[in-house]
Amino acid sequence: DYKDTPDSWKDFFTGKAFCGAGQNFGINLSGGTKSQNYRVDWMNPWIFDRPIRFGLGGFYKTWEWEKYDEERTGGYWKLGKQLFHNKHLDASFTHRLENVTLDNFDDDVSPQLKGEEGTNLISRGIFNLTWDSRDSRFDPTEGLMASATQEFAGTIFGGDRDFWRNFLTVHWFHPLYKDKSGRPYVLALRGETGAADGMNGDHVPVYERMYAGGIGSIRGFGYNRVSPRDLYGDEIGGTLTTTGSAEFFVPIFDQLVRASAFYDIGNVWQNWDEWDSKASGDTWRQSTGLGLHVKTPLGPMPIRLYYSWILNKQEGDSEQKFQFTFGAFF
Question: Per-residue pLDDT for 280 more than 90?
Answer without folding.
Answer: no
